[in-house]
Each structure stands twice: as structure tokens, then as C-alpha cells.
Amino acid sequence: MKTREIHQKGVVERQAEAVELVKKPGDVAIVERGVVRSLVMRCPDGCGDILTVNLDGRAGPAWRLYNGKDGLTIFPSVWRDTGCGAHFIVWDDVIHWTNDAWIVRRDPILERAVEAKLTHDFISYVDLATTLGEVPWAVLDACRSLASTGAAVEDRDKRRPWFKLSGQDGPTKEELIPPERA
What we know:
This protein is an alpha+beta fold.
């Protein structure tokens, strides 16, 4: 059975120890030896598989871990291209299934900070999050909230949504991205 929340079970030094801790869908444990290495999770879709999410950039492509006051977040989404095919976001201890509708969480303070950084040129929400020192999912949410009020415009490309202020048009995102990065 799918779950909609994660349950942090602890921080351990070894992968095998983490696997022992994650018994139910959504259970997670962090592997840390000097630095955070990985997040081990019992697949939240209920298939029973153990997922290991790399958090250590020295070992290859890595997700970002945010462990804030509202809970654990990882970025980007987790997408299993084998097994059950689950695709989900972990944000503040909540699992958001990507096939569900995005429900905007209003954060007026963050929305004002995001709006102050938006221009009439498209920018990725990930770049905005980096500039603001915020969790990318929270910035995406603030951008979508601004777009829902007409203060911003959203444009999606193949990899991620881009945003700009409403009104006067600047260059398109195609003009901003060099062909070698597209």
C-alpha cells in the first residue's frame, strides 16, 4: 500500500544497518560516516524494495538532502525506472506522488523573496533556490503560487519549469541557454 509520509528511523554508519531499520513503506535511514553518504528507504509504493539514494557527490550523481525544522527533504525527485516505476518527491517528511495534482502551500514570506528575484527573463526555480539558499521544492511552490495569481509566468521545458515576472517579455529561455546545454 502506498504511503504519503516518511518515517525517519535513524542515522547509522553502514548500509546493512540502515536496511535493518527500514521495515515499512516510507521508512528511511541515513548512512553517515564522516559525511552523509546515502538515504536508504523502503519503497513508499508498497512493493517492498529497498531504495538507496546517493547523497555523496564523490560517489557519482547525488541528490541533495535538506533536514530542516519541518522535516527531511531530498532533491530532485526519486524515479524508479525499474521495478515498480514509482516517481515521487520527498519534501518536509511528506511523499508527493508526481502523478497527483500539485497542491500549492502558501508561504507569503518566501513568495515575496522569490518575486523580488524574478525578472522579465525566464529562470529555473532550481537556480532561484540556489540564489535564495532555499529548498528547491519550496521555491517551485512559491513560483507556482505567484503564477496562479498572475504575478509570474511559468514555462515548462523537458527538464524543469522556468519562471519570470508577468508583463514585458525578455529573451526566451531558448535564447538564454547555449545550444550545447539544451
